[in-house]
Design brief:
It is built from 7 helices and 7 strands. The strands form 3 sheets. It has a 3-stranded antiparallel beta sheet, with helices on both faces. A two-stranded antiparallel sheet has the order 3-4. The protein has about 200 residues and is α+β, with helices and mostly antiparallel strands. The chain has one domain. Strand 6 and strand 7 form a beta hairpin. The radius of gyration is 18 Å and the shape is globular. About 30% of the residues lie in helices and about 15% in strands. The longest helix has 17 residues.
C-alpha cells in the first residue's frame, strides 16, 4: 500500500477508471476534452479524482505524471480478476481488454471488502490467438510488442484503420468485444499514443 502524507500506511486503495464504453461520454463532455491543451484525459482525471479524494478525506494517486511510476497494474491484479494477455494489457473475463485505470484514492480506513470471485484466465481457452495475428505489421508476438513498428504504421496512410477504429490486435480479441471503444474514443486514444512518441 502507498503511504499517506506523513508516512502513515494506507488502509484501503480504491482504484478508479473506465470499464467498457461507460466513462467516455463523461470525459467527452468535459471542458478539458475541447480546450486544445495537452493531455486532456490526464487533466480531467486529475481534476475529478482530486475532488473525490478531498471529499472522502483520502489521497489521490495517478498512473501518469512520473517518474516515479506507481505500480497500478500490480494493484489492479490484486483488486480485480485481471490476467496478463498476449498483448501485454491486462484482460478481464467480462470487459476483455476494454478497461483502463485513471487513478486511485488511498484511504486511512481499512474497508471490509468481499473476496474476488473465482475466475479463469480468458486467454487459456483461446486457441486462435487472433490478437497476435491481426496486427497489419505484426507488432505483437509471443516475445513482446514492437512499439516503434506500431507507431510507424499508424502514422502512415496505411494505418488509417487503426487510427480511426482502434488497435486491430485489441479489436480482434473476442472477450468483451461488446464493450469496445466507440470510434471517437478509439481515435482519441490512438492519436494520444502517437503524439506521445512524436
Amino acid at each position: 500500500m502507498p503511504p499517506l502524507p506523513g508516512g502513515e500506511p494506507a488502509g484501503t486503495l480504491v482504484l478508479l477508471g473506465f470499464a467498457g464504453r461507460a466513462g467516455w461520454p463523461e470525459f467527452a463532455a468535459a471542458p478539458e476534452a475541447a480546450d486544445g491543451a495537452p493531455d486532456p484525459l490526464d487533466r480531467w482525471s486529475r481534476r475529478e479524482i482530486l475532488a473525490l479524494a478531498e471529499a472522502v478525506g483520502g489521497t489521490a494517486l495517478f498512473p501518469f505524471g512520473g517518474p516515479p511510476w506507481l505500480p497500478f497494474q500490480r494493484w489492479a491484479q490484486r483488486a480485480d480478476t485481471l490476467f496478463p494477455s498476449p498483448l501485454g494489457l491486462l484482460i478481464h473475463p467480462e470487459w476483455g481488454l476494454w478497461h483502463s485505470l485513471r487513478g486511485a484514492v488511498a484511504l486511512r480506513e481499512r474497508l471490509d471488502l468481499p473476496p474476488l470471485p473465482a475466475a479463469t484466465h480468458p486467454c487459456e481457452a483461446c486457441v486462435a490467438r487472433l490478437c497476435l495475428t491481426a496486427c497489419p505489421v505484426g507488432a505483437f508476438t509471443e516475445s513482446g510488442y514492437d512499439v516503434a513498428g506500431c507507431a510507424t504504421h499508424i502514422a502512415a496512410p496505411a494505418g488509417a484503420d487503426c487510427i480511426d477504429q482502434g488497435c486491430a490486435a485489441r479489436r480482434a480479441c473476442p472477450v468483451g468485444a461488446a464493450h469496445a471503444h466507440p470510434p471517437e474514443a478509439a481515435g482519441f486514444f490512438m492519436r494520444a499514443f502517437l503524439a506521445a512518441r512524436g
